[in-house]
Each structure stands twice: as structure tokens, then as C-alpha cells.
């Protein structure tokens, strides 16, 4: 008996931590600390809601390190800047862009509350400066963060609110599953810390804000088989769809899992982040938006190239045509974008329309080494260098030149001002691959950010926000409203907190 007890003690010493369970009791647990989760946890804290924030990474913040600005309509900044766009006008543009496939009730509530959400953020210390657009003659709804990216300032401001209200943040503590009662109400989560210790968080409600599913090959294969091979993405590597998986396990429905937020074409053999560190590679990225002749990998023209500024339209056409883009131009077009009209598109606010593409020649030299750029004295030679069917490429360019000579694009309706012939050697070819910024599908929610099950009913106690959700955009992300994704994440988190307060905690939401 003594030996047996000693054996049990040894087992506990070796494996005790793996079976131990630490428990917390709270009113709201927020899973994920990116744009949606961190903002929601801070807003809940400011409203006096007892909150625990879980994050599986060592640090909080998520995509706050890369966003530039956030959508809102009806702000004080817009009024001072004489922006006349109304909330109803913005809402109808968004819905029309989606073909009214987007969640109308959610989007109306989002648009109507977008200004007050930004005002709350600013009151809590988030620094912003000015409003702009990132598309030619576009809607001035893009509220910019001071010094470019919000990053540290935003994170510090939100963490200050959370800590001042004595709420808890647990990093390196991923949630593993949802806790439900006999009625199917969500009553908390099971998580695990870095030491392998199981943690049970009992709560009145759970908000899932774990990011998208882009790095989950199984989910990607199921909903987007055409995107699995070759296509790049810039979403954080830890975005595995954790919240979506947890929700589906208890019957949650999903929406628009095949909808993506795209970055258009990025030069092949190049990581997306390289364009930010190298002026020549940034120019190469912008060259791929030049409305010269565009071909698919089989050498055929497939789109009106003048639409290059709308990444959703461009990327949709690329998905339908093999996801690879080949842009061919001649010496005259090179001179025009280097010394004349400049870039025909912008890259958010980092690259302006009309900006001179000064590093064109450096991009060609770099691209010939990395395999994304080519130069030749004839179209036939260029096609050979790009390993494309010479006859098809030649025929496509000849057809394009005839349309340019005629002054009418009867094939794709391109504006005649952009219909420039490709006739002056040397010729240049750039190859790009369609690139995903993030997935835009996920758990189906209502206008209060409450998750809906596969039978169309709300799951009591379960909410979702940010890239964990789907249905907000329909099948087309609205690039006509810059900053729409980050604004949606912030507002959905706010809606969830307010709904929890009103319907579960039975408290009045404090005005701000």
C-alpha cells in the first residue's frame, strides 16, 4: 500500500499540471485580442462589465499593426472637412455593391453607429488625424490614425481602460472549446495556458474574436478549393479559424466562407511584406496595376484593365482566370508612368495615384533575378522568356493593338484613353499572383453580433466580431468604403457588449 501511494505521488508530480484546472468566474469572456477583441474588452470594461480577455499569442493587438485607418460616417472631422456623404447614402452604396447579399440590418446599425464608436476611441486616447479616401474621387470616410498605423497607441489606450477597471488579460492562453448548459446556452470557455494547465472560464456570455481561417488548410479546401494552390495571403499565421471551429461544434452557422478581402496581384516569388521594405519592389507591385494589356497565364486577355484600382473587382476576375496576372507594356508606357502620368492606381495611402514610378528600371533588374519581371526586344521573345505560348500571346497583343488603333474596346469596354497600343520596343512583362489580405467569411451573426445557429436562431450567450464573422459584406468586400473591415470589427464588438448588458446582465448602457 505504501509503495502504491508513493507511485501515485510520483504520477501527480510528473503529470499533475496537465490535469489541473484553474477556474475564473466573470460576466464576459472575450476570446482573441485583435482589433475586435481588444476594443470589445476595453469597451466592456468602460461600461463596468467584469471581463476576461484571452489571447493565444504572447502579445495583444493582432492586425492593429497594419491597419491605416477606419471607416466612419457623420464624424466631427468629416463635418469640419465639408464631407457631405450621409449615413443613408453610405449604407445604400454598401448594399448595392454587394448586390444586397450583405447583412442589411447589421450594416445599417454599423453605419449609423460608426461615428460614435470612433469618438469613444478618441476619448480613450486613440490618436487620429484627418479623413481621406484611398480611391480616386472616392468616399472620404477613411479616418487616419496618427503617425500612420495605430499600433502601440491603440493597444496602450485599450489596455489602460481594461487595467483601470481591474479586468484580466491572459496571454498565451488559447481557448479550446465552448461550455454550454443543458439548454444549449453558452456559459464559458475551456482554455489552456503555456504550461499546459487547463483553465475554465465561467461567464454569462462569450465573444469570439479569434481572427479568420486563412491558415486552416482544411477549411480553405472545403469552402475555397480554387484558392488552395499557389495563392498568397498576408493574414497572421496563427489565424486558424479557432472561433469558427468552436462555434460550429455547437451548431453555429457560417456565412460567405468563399468571400475574401484581396490585395490584388503581388509579384510572384516575393513575400507581400517585401514591398514595404524595398522601393523597387513597391513599384513592381504598382506596375502590376498599370492598365496596359493584362493576360492570364494562358496568354489571353480577360478583363477591362482600367478597373485596376478596385481590388475586389480585379481579384474576382483573377480567381475566375487562374489567379495569375501577366502585365505587358512597351517603352512608351514605361516612360509615361516613370516621367509622365505616373501610377494609374493608388495603394491605400502609401502610394498615390499619379505618383511617378521612379524605380521601374530597378524593379525590372530585381524582377529578372527573382523571376517576376522580363524584358525583350519583341513580343515573341518576351513570351518565350516568360515561358508562355508564343502564338497566343502574340495574337492577344495584336488584337489589343487593333482595338487601340480603332479607338474602341469591343472586347471588354475599356475607356479609350487607357487603350494604348503596345508597339515600341523594348517590351516588359511582369507576373503577379492574386493575394488575399484576409478571409471575409465566418460565423453568421445578427445586428447585435449574436451568433446564429444552422436553424436560424440565436445561440444564447454566444457572440462574434471581426474576421471571425461572415455575412457583413456579402460576396464582395466594399473597397468603395476604405477601412470598412476594421470599423466592422470595432462596432460588432461594441454591439455584442451592449446586447449582453441589456438582455443578460439587465443593465443600462452608459452614454459617452
Low-confidence stretches: 11-19
* Helix residue percentage: 25-40%
Q: Structural class given helices, strands, pairing?
A: alpha/beta
* Silhouette: elongated
Strand order of the largest sheet: 7-3-2-11-21-20
Number of separate domains: 2
Instruction: Write the CATH fold name of the largest domain.
Output: FAD/NAD(P)-binding domain
What is the overall pLDDT average?
Answer: 91
Please give the largest β-sheet: 6 strands, mixed
The CATH class name of the largest domain reads Alpha Beta
- How many beta-strand runs? 22
Full CATH superfamily name of the largest domain: FAD/NAD(P)-binding domain
Secondary structure tally, helices? 16
Radius of gyration, CA atoms, in whole angstroms: 26 Å
Percent in strands? 15-25%
Named CATH architecture of the largest domain: 3-Layer(bba) Sandwich
Measured between the Cα atoms of the first and last residue, the distance is 66 Å
Amino acid at each position: 500500500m505504501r509503495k502504491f501511494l508513493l507511485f501515485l505521488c510520483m504520477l501527480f508530480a510528473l503529470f499533475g499540471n496537465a490535469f489541473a484546472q484553474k477556474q475564473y468566474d466573470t460576466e464576459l469572456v472575450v476570446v482573441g485580442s485583435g482589433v475586435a477583441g481588444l476594443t470589445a474588452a476595453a469597451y466592456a470594461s468602460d461600461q463596468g462589465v467584469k471581463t476576461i480577455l484571452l489571447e493565444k499569442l504572447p502579445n495583444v493587438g493582432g492586425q492593429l499593426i497594419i491597419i491605416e485607418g477606419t471607416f466612419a460616417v457623420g464624424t466631427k472631422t468629416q463635418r469640419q472637412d465639408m464631407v457631405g456623404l450621409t449615413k443613408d447614402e453610405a449604407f445604400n452604396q454598401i448594399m448595392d455593391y454587394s448586390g444586397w447579399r450583405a447583412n442589411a440590418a447589421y450594416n445599417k446599425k454599423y453605419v449609423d453607429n460608426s461615428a460614435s464608436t470612433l469618438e469613444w476611441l478618441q476619448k480613450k486616447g486613440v490618436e487620429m488625424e484627418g479623413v481621406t479616401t484611398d480611391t480616386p474621387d472616392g468616399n472620404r470616410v477613411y479616418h487616419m490614425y496618427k503617425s500612420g498605423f495605430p499600433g502601440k497607441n491603440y493597444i496602450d489606450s485599450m489596455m489602460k481602460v481594461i487595467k483601470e477597471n481591474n479586468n484580466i488579460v491572459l496571454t498565451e492562453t488559447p481557448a479550446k472549446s465552448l461550455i454550454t448548459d443543458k439548454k444549449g446556452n453558452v456559459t464559458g470557455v475551456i482554455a489552456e495556458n503555456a504550461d499546459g494547465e487547463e483553465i475554465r472560464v465561467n461567464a454569462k456570455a462569450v465573444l469570439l474574436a479569434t481572427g479568420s481561417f486563412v491558415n486552416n488548410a482544411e477549411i480553405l479546401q472545403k469552402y475555397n478549393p480554387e484558392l488552395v494552390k499557389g495563392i498568397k495571403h498576408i493574414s497572421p499565421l496563427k489565424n486558424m479559424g479557432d472561433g469558427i471551429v468552436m462555434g460550429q461544434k455547437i451548431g453555429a452557422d457560417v456565412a460567405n466562407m468563399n468571400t475574401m478581402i484581396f490585395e490584388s496581384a503581388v509579384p510572384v516569388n516575393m513575400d507581400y511584406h517585401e514591398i514595404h521594405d524595398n522601393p523597387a519592389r513597391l513599384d513592381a507591385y504598382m506596375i502590376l496595376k498599370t492598365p496596359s494589356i493584362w493576360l492570364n497565364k494562358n496568354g489571353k486577355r480577360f478583363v477591362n484593365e482600367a478597373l485596376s484600382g478596385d481590388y475586389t473587382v480585379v481579384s474576382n476576375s483573377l480567381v475566375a482566370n487562374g489567379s495569375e496576372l501577366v502585365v505587358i507594356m512597351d517603352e512608351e508606357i514605361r516612360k509615361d508612368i516613370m516621367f509622365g502620368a505616373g501610377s494609374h492606381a493608388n495603394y491605400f495611402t502609401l502610394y498615390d495615384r499619379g505618383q511617378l514610378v521612379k524605380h521601374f528600371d530597378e524593379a525590372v533588374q530585381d524582377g529578372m533575378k527573382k523571376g517576376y519581371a522580363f524584358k525583350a526586344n519583341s513580343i515573341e521573345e518576351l513570351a518565350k522568356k516568360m515561358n508562355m505560348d508564343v502564338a497566343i500571346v502574340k495574337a492577344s497583343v495584336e488584337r489589343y493593338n487593333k482595338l487601340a488603333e480603332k479607338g474602341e474596346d469591343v472586347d471588354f469596354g475599356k475607356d479609350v484613353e487607357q487603350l494604348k497600343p503596345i508597339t515600341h520596343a523594348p517590351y516588359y512583362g511582369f507576373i503577379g499572383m492574386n493575394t488575399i489580405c484576409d478571409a471575409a467569411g465566418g460565423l453568421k451573426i445578427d445586428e447585435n453580433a449574436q451568433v446564429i445557429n444552422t436553424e436560424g436562431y440565436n445561440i444564447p450567450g454566444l457572440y462574434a466580431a471581426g474576421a471571425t464573422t461572415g455575412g457583413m459584406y456579402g460576396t464582395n468586400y466594399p473597397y468603395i468604403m476604405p477601412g470598412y473591415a476594421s470599423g466592422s470589427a470595432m462596432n460588432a464588438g461594441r454591439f455584442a457588449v451592449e446586447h449582453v448588458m441589456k438582455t443578460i446582465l439587465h443593465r443600462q448602457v452608459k452614454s459617452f
